[in-house]
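Researcher: I'd like a candidate sequence for this fold, 171 residues long. If you have to choose between options at a position, lean toward the conservative one.
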């Protein structure tokens, strides 16, 4: 792994820990793998792998109800499976922090991710869930900390979409 990727994933973990994250629900994803590995190296975070994105969101909702502070990592295509549980979480004001790869923003190099990008923004917008697209103007530590600050303060779910270039540093 390159120094840039190590720094980016360490930055994300630092911001998440500073915001009180103590659980990480995740599905394998090529873009977010360095972040997952950073969480796995931390002794302060309970790691929960899952088989489907809707399962992951449901687990994160349960953790939140149980007093934990989870983050849910997935590829954005999985949000299509997660609409119902996200709607329930939003309706009952049980926030879920979703960190997903692939966006409609600049820096998405492959057309086969276009449906994924359309889906994520549609789900978030349709359910009234705020979301941001991370860019390289702020460290990932700042992005995740501010997202979690909003989740806690406003009791709303929130999506943070991360384009591949933010994790790889490759333009």
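Model: Candidate sequence:
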């Amino acid at each position: 792994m390159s120094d840039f990727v190590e720094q980016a994933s360490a930055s994300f973990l630092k911001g998440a820990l500073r915001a009180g994250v103590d659980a990480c629900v995740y599905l394998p994803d090529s873009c977010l793998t360095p972040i997952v590995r950073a969480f796995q190296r931390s002794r302060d975070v309970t790691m929960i792998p899952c088989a489907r994105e809707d399962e992951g969101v449901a687990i994160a909702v349960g953790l939140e109800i149980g007093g934990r502070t989870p983050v849910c990592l997935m590829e954005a295509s999985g949000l299509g499976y997660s609409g119902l549980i996200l709607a329930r979480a939003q309706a009952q004001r049980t926030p879920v922090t979703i960190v997903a790869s692939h966006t409609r923003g600049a820096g998405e190099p492959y057309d086969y991710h276009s449906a994924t990008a359309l889906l994520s923004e549609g789900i978030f917008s349709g359910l009234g869930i705020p979301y941001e697209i991370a860019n390289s103007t702020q460290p990932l530590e700042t992005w995740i900390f501010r997202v979690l600050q909003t989740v806690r303060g406003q009791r709303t779910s929130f999506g943070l979409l991360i384009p591949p270039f933010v994790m790889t540093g490759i333009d």
